[in-house]
Amino acid sequence: MPSLKDIKRRITSVRKTQQITRAMRMVAGAKLRRAQEAIESARPYAEHMRATLAEVARVQRDSDHPLLVPHAETRSVEVFVITSDRGLCGAFNANVIKQALSVVRTRQQAGARVEISTAGKKAREAFQRRMPDALREHYTQDGWVSFGQAAAIAGYLSRRYAEREVDEVVLVYSEFVSAITQTPQAVTLLPFAAGAGDDSEEGQPLPYEIEPDPAKLLAVLVPKAVEVEIFRALLENQSGEHAARMAAMEAATRNTEELIESLTLQYNRARQAAITKELVEIVSGAEAL
Predict the structure, then answer these.
(1) Is 257 within a domain?
(2) 258 lies in a domain?
(3) Can you tell me the distance from the alpha carbon of 38 to that of 168, in angstroms, rounded to the nearest whole number?
(4) Residue 18 domain-assigned?
């Protein structure tokens, strides 16, 4: 049985841990509010970008833009996995990695060669253990997500697809649904789907004119739309990370409270037993005299 000193030392240690988890929960909550505002602002922009692109693509149906045209065969696939750089966020990163491994298995079973690029240290570490030969580029997420980072990633992936180094690019990330729900997603980024137009309006002229011509507009819109999609995925992942960390730290704080109560009860029982033993010894000594 542990001594009173050992139990007291453990209670002190757990209380210090509780202070850390409570502080991390508060920090994650503050960051989540900022990240949630960012993703709620980015979603309408991304949706309107796709809607605009769909309108232009409806006019220019036979576009030969290299990012819109599917390749004849899918012999090589690049899976871009987005996770966080840090842990202590429950099963957040593990769920994304599990989704990415499912995509990898599906593409390999179809006979395609799979390559992996990552954003976030957790994804890099996971695939260094599992598929070290398939790893290519890696992007860290130091600080807050920026559009410049998304543009750099989009440029790399778009170049590889346009130069036919890969025949498909799949984006794997965690979608922020709410503070308690984050859903892993796997979407085909390239070839880029401009969006389905209304079949009833096919062949009918648009109620406005497009200047310059649709082909030139697609040349500008498509690369920008790819950048926006990646930026949105990074923001979704960032919000999900802070939400998952806040939930994990809240659960850890509750666990420390329960552990402190249990240790305190154990301490009191041991202290009571020690006092009872001393009293018995005193009474026995007095009777002997």
Answers:
(1) no
(2) no
(3) 29
(4) no
The answer to whether the CB of 238 falls within 8 A of the CB of 145 is yes
pTM for the structure as a whole: 0.85
Question: Of 139, 127, 135, which Cα lies nearest the Cα of 78?
Answer: 135
- Walk across the sheet containing 168-178 and list its strands: 135-139, 113-119, 76-82, 168-178, 181-190
**Per-residue pLDDT tens digits for 102-127:** 999 999 999 999 999 999 999 999 99
3-class secondary-structure state, position 237: helix
Look at the chain and report how many structural domains it folds into: 1
Residue 185 lies in a domain: yes
Count other Cβ atoms within 10 Å, centred on residue 146: 12
Classify residue 164 as left (phi > 0), alpha (psi -120 to 50) or beta: left
The two tokens of residue 20 are 């850390």
**68-91 burial by CB neighbour count: b if 16+ within 10 A, else e?**
beeeeeeebbbbbbbbbbeeebbe
Identify whether the C-beta of residue 241 lies closer than 8 Å to the C-beta of residue 121: no
Task: Give the containing element (helix H, strand E) for 147.
Answer: helix 147-162
| Residue 76, domain extent | 26-195+208-247
Which helix (H) or strand (E) segment holds residue 182: the answer is: strand 181-190
Name residue 45's amino acid: Y
CATH of the domain at 219: 3.40.1380.10
Tokens describing residue 238: 């960032």
Q: Which residue has the higher pLDDT, 193 or 20?
A: 20
| pLDDT, tens only, 236-248 | 999 999 999 999 9
Q: Cα torsion at 86, 91, 97, 101 (round to 10°)?
A: 160
- Comparing CA positions, the residue from 118, 145, 148, 146 lying closest to residue 131 is 118
User: Does residue 55 carry a catalytic annotation?
Assistant: no
Task: Please confirm whether the linkage preceding 132 is cis (ω < 30° from 0).
Answer: no
**Which of 89, 116, 226, 243 does the annotation list as catalytic?**
89
